[in-house]
From TrEMBL:
GO biological process, alphabetically ordered: negative regulation of apoptotic process; proteolysis
Source species of the chain: Nothobranchius furzeri
An example Gene Ontology molecular-function term: calcium ion binding
Protein name: Calpain 12
Acidic residues composition bias: residue spans: 1-22
Length: 329
């Protein structure tokens, strides 16, 4: 017991000495010491954003570019960082003003943690290729932000079907429907293309995909109610397509497609969006409207099939692997 008391007294003496040392330090010295401790915890990094393929023969055509660095909290890692994330979080670092030059860079001091670097152009949605170089004093793990695709798709019935569309449906069913009062793929294609503008006409293959995405009870035809819902959905997709076709080109870039799918309620990572764009461009440079309809139809079906899977091995691989496997078929 005496030895324990002596040890306690020694510890108390040490604490008293530390307290005396702190008291002997001036406020300025304390502040400097604290700053040194904080500085030791930081990591110094140099981030550079470089534009690719902007030099053409004797001229250059650099975009105005910059980058911003955001800290990602542990609970946000592996999730889709949406508009709300960037509206509620301030960047912890940035390159400065947008500049029309090959590269922009900035030296940053960051706390240990996870960060995302977002390169951007001054003009919204300007297409361009770039790569990022990072130099640091300590080793770091780098990668592309990834997340699991998700579906929150809901058929939108914002307004009831218009009288004009209702009349067209009634007339088509009277003239084209079979004895079971259902329309086949040819009847559906003629109906849809008779009520929507020429620029949005759907080819036969897209109409087949639409029917495949519905519950046809094995008959490959649609009922009157299904056709009414289909036409309303199509009007909604047309509105979303126009909203995100910002350059009014009549087609969508992969970036525009990603935003449009999110508006529909389908969140997909970059690999899936790129594969969709390549799969449904139909020989054009970018995605036309009927390709967008095919994307939504195929995704809805694949999400539904994945949800109905009972194979645990398939579930363990995840929805992203499932989509990448079957979107190529």
């Amino acid at each position: 017991e005496e030895e324990e008391e002596e040890e306690d007294n020694d510890q108390q003496d040490d604490d008293d000495k530390l307290d005396d040392g702190d008291q002997m330090m001036t406020a300025e010295e304390k502040k400097k010491a604290q700053k040194q401790k904080q500085k030791a915890k930081h990591c110094t990094v140099l981030v550079e954003l470089l534009q690719k393929n902007r030099r053409q023969k004797d001229k250059t055509n650099f975009l105005y570019v910059a980058f911003h660095v955001y800290k990602v909290s542990p609970e946000m890692q592996g999730t889709c960082l949406d508009r709300n994330f960037f509206m509620t979080n301030r960047p912890v670092g940035r390159s400065g003003t947008y500049k029309a030059q090959r590269g922009v860079w900035r030296k940053l001091r960051l706390d240990p943690g996870n960060y995302i670097i977002v390169g951007s152009t001054y003009r919204p949605n300007a297409p361009g290729e770039f790569f990022i170089r990072i130099f640091s004093k300590t080793s770091n793990t780098l990668g592309v932000q990834d997340f699991s695709c998700s579906s929150g798709y809901r058929p939108v019935m914002a307004t009831p079907i218009s009288p004009e569309d209702q009349t067209s449906i009634e007339k088509t069913f009277v003239n084209k429907a079979g004895p079971d009062d259902r329309l086949d793929v040819n009847g559906i294609m003629k109906l849809l293309n008779s009520v929507i503008e020429k620029d949005y006409h759907l080819p036969l293959e897209t109409c087949r995909q639409i029917i495949f995405g519905e519950d046809t009870e094995g008959r490959s035809t649609l009922s009157r109610e299904q056709v009414e819902n289909l036409l309303t959905d199509l009007r909604t997709l047309q509105s979303i397509f126009n909203q995100f076709d910002e350059d009014s080109s009549g087609t969508m870039s992969p970036f525009e497609l990603s935003l449009a799918l999110e508006a529909v309620g389908l969140q997909c990572d970059n690999k899936v969006v790129q594969l969709l764009s390549e799969r449904f461009v139909a020989g054009e440079q970018d995605l036309p409207f009927h390709g967008f309809v095919s994307c939504v139809t195929r995704l809805r079906k694949l999400f539904a099939l994945f949800d109905s899977q009972t194979n645990q091995e398939v579930k363990d691989k995840g929805i992203n692997a499932w989509l990448l496997q079957f979107l190529t078929l």
